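Support reply, case 0932

Customer input (verbatim):
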Amino acid sequence: MRISHYSQKYEAEVVACWNRNCVFDPIDVKKFRKQALFDDNFDADLCFVALENDHVIGFAMATKRKFPYLERGLEPERGWINVMFVDEEFRHQGIGQQLLDQMESALKELGVKNITLGAYSPNYFFWGVDPVHYSEAVTFFEKNGYQALDLHYSMGKDLHGYQIPKETLEKKKKAEELGYQFINFDYQYALELLDFLKREFGGGWKRNALMSMQKQRAEDEILLVLDKDNQIVAFCTRAIDDNPMRFGPIGVSKNHRNAGLGSILLDLGCYEMAKKGIYRMYFVTTDEPGKRYYLRHGLSVIRTTVEYRKDI
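Our regenerated output:
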């Protein structure tokens, strides 16, 4: 067995090995290329394969930013382990440890002082470690000094036969009587929306809306709420990773969060999806308060992940 830097010649075997081991998260070559190889910050020096007779039996990929990410900039002291796995028949032989040691050493040489598992924006494969489906990973990383932080929840809802609840329609009517308007995105609001999102929620949200506009899909994907002065006060979108079922982000201006606008937008967004024949909605991550909120709106937890970090 030997460890080598990733080379394009291993692409098909890496994907096959991924699908043998990350069985809850299968990928195809296009997804691998899009989120790994074609990421701005991909670095073959931080990407490793474990080989047995020149066949891939393990893979590990880490990231350190080479290009600034919105208002976060370069985050010069931060690194990520995007993904790591070893074929089951070769586990417990120290191969995973060698892969991890290689990544940590390479990141440290680049000035990294703390490492996060998954949760690399914008092209993460995992938001953290899934303790249900990858319990061995939890044991392994905790043994290596990674500390568990926050819990994150992926949630979703079936939309077959979806109808907007009567109580939501009543809330919407009352909100409209107060001067609020619920509309599909129109390009006359493009610059105002981008400014609103950056100001209220940060550059990541602005980026999501901007990409939807650039792809000429914003009118189909984005809903807005305007106040009595025709100013944007709330927003929701979907398909931020080109998957039509992916819902969110959704947010309301801090000055308008007691009017029930978020709940109305959530139901309107679900109905728009159902009308288009999109019969499942999901989002990748929310926190504990968010989970309670969405449970009240009929969503269920699909998956739980744990954020892990280590200082090096």
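We compared this against your earlier run and they match. Two observations from our side: Residues 2-152 form a domain with the Aminopeptidase fold (CATH 3.40.630.30). The two ends are 27 Å apart (CA to CA). Please reopen the case if you see a mismatch on your end.
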